[in-house]
Amino acid sequence: MPFLVLGFAEMDDTQLSLVGGKALNLARLSRAEGILVPDGFCVTTDGFRQAVAHNLTYQSLLEQLKTLTAEDRQQIAEISGKIRQHILAVKMPADIASAVTQYLSVLGEEHAYAVRSSATAEDLPHASFAGQQDTYLNIRGTKSILEHISKCWASLFTDRAVIYRIQNGFDHTQVLLSVIIQRMVTPQASGIMFTADPVTGSRKVVSVDAGFGLGEALVSGLVSPDSYKVRDGVIINKQITAKQLAMYGRQDGGTFTCELDPEQQTTQTLSDLQIIALSSLGRRIEARFGYPQDIEWCLADGVFYIVQSRPITTLFPAPEAGDQVNRVYLSVGHQQMMTDAMKPLGLSFYLLTTPAPMRTAGGRLFVDVTPLLASPDTGTAVVNALGKSDPLIKNALMSLVERGDFIQPSLENTKVPYSLKNNENADPGVFNARIEFDPAIVPALIKRNQASVEELKLRIRTQTGPALFDFIIEDMQELKKLLFDPQSSAVIMTAMDASSWINDRMNEWLGDKNAADVLSQSVADNVTSEMGLALLDVADVIRPHHEVIRYLEHVAQDDFLDELMKIEGGQEAGDAIHSYLEQYGMRCSGEIDLTRTRWSENPLILVPMILNHIKHFSRGASRQKFEQGRQEAVIKERELLERLEQLPDGVQKAAETKRVIRLLRGFIGYREYPKYGMISRYFIYKQALLREAGQLVEAGIIKQTEDIYYLTFEELREAVCTRRLDYGMIEKRREDYRLYEKLTPPRVITSDGERINGDYKRDDLPADALVGLPVSSGVIEGRARIIFNMEHADLEEGDILVTLFTDPSWTPLFVSIKGLVTEVGGLMTHGAVIAREYGLPAVVGVDQATKRIKDGQMIRVHGTEGYIELL
């Protein structure tokens, strides 16, 4: 027998699908001691089904809605409007009307009620649906309440609610609506309370917004409320606004807005004691649900009532260390140019690779720098070293250090990591190299890495079952030896030191800013820039074969290479693509996540870039581009040395500069190779693990091979060993990942969950300039192209790429652009390094660049000074 109507007291935790998140949360709170919730009931989803959902017209319109995307705004408006009209026209079933009447008689028909939605996908930890359905206040009389129940049902299909469900991956047919009918209180004040600061994310701060009258005035933006912040029971901030208006309930039903007396407008809405009492109540509610809450409250006759509580879904999770120590974490993704969420298997492989003290949160990796900051021996050095690469991180860390009470000083001696050590020069005019130049060093390092990878390919073929996991753990020791080899590290750090020395000395001696940028163009042994140029060579092979080009322009299937061989010229084209994949097929966007689809797994990703190269470049463009960059570097070196020789002590300065340029050009290209070696190994591991996953699918333990991406390495080992697995864990992890994908990770976050946002300290820029970090010199004007997925890039010659971040897989696009702007990045991250090698003006670390710059807008990139002008 269906439950058409249920009172708060009758609901239990198993009835989410029946009453929805909002109603269930109110029912839970109504049973909590010391928390007052106005009494009420709801018409359940069974009632919605009976009244609406089984109707054939409704079902037909719903099927039409399912085919639309969020961009189909006009069609969404048209179909949603028809659904709303249909729902409003449906007669309320007699048994529902009778049950509603009965509940109202118990609660008191003479009272006013709030009628509001409670959808089955609403007020959940991963999606709040806040404001998506309609709320009606101060409704009086059974007839009017029944009418507004229908209006609530119809509001499930407002345009905004439909678009929100599409964007968040909810099936319209699976989201049902219950309707809450809750007795109104007549509040003197009301508002919203967050049990974590919605701006900074700090879990230690309660944030309260308050205004006079009904809270709807605040929610709708009609009134600017007072704002209070409370930490550990102490008010730490108050902002009292001029509250000109307030909303109240009419005696005969409905609401009205009135202007407050001038004296009341500037009166503090809540007393200090009330603020502290309300924040304490918020903490109790948070403890009840186990998660920070967004709470709507009312104050009537000196008593606080709770009318809604839902999870705050926009908070980035705080890394957990398992202790009460104040900790500071840096985002690994901002250093690796991959701030997307990673799946558990990818996270666990990275954790197995790195020796750094790391934590995971929100599908991202964070390194704990607390011991380094707390030590008097390392704190300043670490902040300054990080600041060279990313001033935003330096500024954020400095703001924490300057608080004085967050990071507790430590007397322990802490070693500065080698990569963060300053290479101090006793004489600024003499460069102290960590390793002297030898042309044989880099080729030997590369050869050793290549030989190790080839040996891995041979040995892993015979490994299966539990032995495979032991083998991978053993081989990762070899990976670590290669990654952290002292000679390899010395080469990379010497090149980075050389770049800094050249920039500092040339600016000091000649007034030449960022001279190392041009000197870094077209260097040897840069596997990433070579990868970008090599795709131009693939385009050269395909260019004469017009039938192949026509085929590639329309191809859609992943296995297109098999069909390609049947076309005239297809053999040559296929061989060229296969050869490219043999060398670079282990790469992809977000490649540090082992679970990401590699180019070898889906070569179709490369096709748009190949076609773009054919369209915009002539034969031999790769050699021409490399030679052009090399010549510019040669000319720059000659110019600098000639100018230096004219200075006092010029011969000595020129000789030392020539030596440092040799170190820069001889070593800087190698910087990209260790990661290439790591990704090569990751892909080999992945292929072997997917073979094991196939065995698990055959045994019915998992449903598809990709399910293993939601397990850690050890969990997967256990599943292979025992042939047992709780599949519900995979489903939960998949749901978590969908939530994490929507979150934006902070550069710096504390153990309190507080996001620390740094600022650029610049006052020398045009008023409307977008400021960032200058990483590759030059000034360029062009059309901005906002691109989030490289496979969807449609670039014309002269375009400027504007995106969130780039990693090595984006390099083939760099040959087509004239400038680069990213939201994430530092001086030595991928986009900066390749931009310098290709001679592209670039500015990185530009806050919200993809939102503040419009696709197709003309912009000017100042790569030397570090800002963008909107033209």
What labels would you give this structure?
871 residues; alpha+beta; eight-stranded mixed sheet; six-stranded antiparallel sheet; globular
The proportion of residues forming helix, as a percent range, comes to: 40-55%
Oligomer: single chain
The tally of beta strands, per DSSP, is: 26
Instruction: Please tally the helical runs, counting DSSP H or I stretches of 4 or more residues.
Output: 32
Question: Can you describe what's shown?
Answer:
- With 871 residues, the chain is an alpha+beta fold.
- The protein is built from 32 helices and 26 strands.
- An 8-stranded mixed sheet has the order 19-26-25-21-22-23-24-20.
- Strand 17 and strand 18 form a beta hairpin.
- Helix 20 packs antiparallel against helix 23.
- The longest helix has 26 residues.
- It is globular and about 95 Å long.
- 47% of the residues are buried.
- About 1% of the residues have low confidence.
Give a brief rundown of this model.
The protein starts with a strand and ends with a strand. The strands form 5 sheets. An 8-stranded mixed β-sheet has the order 19-26-25-21-22-23-24-20. It is an alpha+beta fold.
